[in-house]
Amino acid sequence: MEVRRAGRTPGLTGPVLTWALFLAVAGAGLDACARPARLSLVTVEYAWPEFRGSVTERDPDWLGQFEAALAGAARRRGDPDPWFAYWRVRVERDARRSTLLVSREYELYSPAAGEFLSHPALAGLLAGPTRRLAEGFFGEALRWPHPVDLLWPRGSHAVLQDLETRLTLRVRRRGGYHHVDAEPLTASDTAVLREIYGGELKWWRRAVILLVGGRRIAASMNGMPHGGEVILDNDFKGHFCVHFAGSRLHATGEPDRGHRLGVAKASGRLLELLDGASAEELAEWVLVGLTYRDRVTVRHATSGFDEAAWEKLTRSFRHLEVGTPEAGGAPGTVAVDVTIYAGERKEGIKRRLDLSVGRPDGATGWKVDFESLLPLLEPAGPEDVPALGPPDPGC
User: Fold this and answer.
1) Are residues 134 and 141 in contact, defined by beta-carbon separation less than 8 angstroms?
2) In the chain, is it the N or the C terminus that has fewer CB atoms within a 10 Å radius of its CB?
3) Are strands 326-327 and 333-341 parallel, antiparallel or unpaired?
């Protein structure tokens, strides 16, 4: 009986076996080089956690071109500034996953490698997915009154989609001439509106998309029931307001800064508004964003954004009335009067803030030093002025 030793091949012994094993290993290595792991899919999404949209590329030709561009990209070591990332690209290669950050100029950054990547083909390749992402997430900045007044006539129904939560509710247009006065269609729709506002209906301005006539239209709403109503069984005593580009308040006939910010955000033009602002304008947008708990705006428009301090700030007041900013007494500052309404008190206190502004390295516009917002947390002092006035922003 022939006894075979485990792991040995009959007929191959000594130098012959060694050479055979070498050829087998070398052949396997050459085969792996000849057939490298290919990209299986690429997902493009917004880098901001509040923007929950994404598109996925699975086309083999596109994936091959993208992989070639990554392989041939010029690389340099460095760290991105806090405002670098607008998109995030998730790359899947077999079972392995990696993430790349992408600027609005289509420069890529690999957090794992600590490197920036640039290639002439990357912008063209990513332009398609990012355009589709925007088309499915934002809305058109159509103006009021026309054509919006014609697309959503009085008495007709539409759908509102909250930009950040992506929740939707059905609404009926009750009326309105400077903007739309709308009502939730049913009690279930009112429940969705309440969920959008965290369980309690508020005056806060929120970016929304109006879905009507097959169009996606950028808009801004508040969630507080007020005034008259037509629908009596929707658990909503009154109506709420929906603003568009060019809308004005019924109370004053003037544009509302909070709704202007909401429409810019809903149309995908927030960064154009903030990065193109003067120091005084940016200080105003920061305070308006803070008033309506708009983390996206304040985070992008400030340097040194602090999440814990943000939470503390937004819990410290019900509403802020923001005055007109002006150049401060010291270089690099903007002065603005802010009336603070806290709790349920109708009386507020007027406080003068001196906000520090500058252009940090890597920033595309002015930034407010986040720490200069913290005096809003200080208790009332002798320099503060008691103030009476509307404790809510109105409609």
Assistant:
1) no
2) N
3) antiparallel
- 342, 317 contact by CB (below 8 A): yes
Asked whether 243 and 263 are in contact (CB, 8 A), the reply is: yes
Encoding tokens for residue 121? 């083909």
Q: Are 325 and 277 in contact (CB under 8 A)?
A: no
How do strand 367-369 and strand 302-303 relate by DSSP bridges?
A: parallel
How confident is the model over 34-90, as pLDDT tens digits? 345 589 999 999 999 999 999 999 999 999 999 999 999 999 999 999 999 999 999
**Which residue stretches of the chain are H helix?**
14-34, 60-71, 120-137, 148-151, 187-196, 257-266, 270-275, 279-291, 295-301, 307-315
Residue 298, Cβ density class (10 Å: 0-12 exposed, 13-18 middle, ≥19 buried): buried
Q: What is the pLDDT of residues 77-91, one digit of tens each?
A: 999 999 999 999 999
Please name each of the domains of the chain with its CATH number. 39-137 (3.30.1490), 148-264 (no CATH), 277-387 (3.10.450)
| Contact (Cβ atoms closer than 8 angstroms) between residue 394 and residue 330 | no
Query: Which residues are within 8 A (CB) of 179 and not within 5 positions of it... i.e. 6 or more apart?
Result: 144, 241, 242, 243, 244, 247, 248, 249, 250, 259
Cβ(313)–Cβ(376) under 8 Å?
yes
pLDDT value at 19 more than 90: no
Q: Would you say 391 and 319 are in contact if contact means Cβ atoms under 8 Å apart?
A: yes
Write the secondary structure of 238-283 as one string of H (helix), E (strand) and C (coil): CEEEEECECCCCCCCCCCCHHHHHHHHHHCCCHHHHHHCCCHHHHH
Please tell me the total number of residues recorded for the chain in this structure.
395
Residue type at 387 in one-letter notation: A
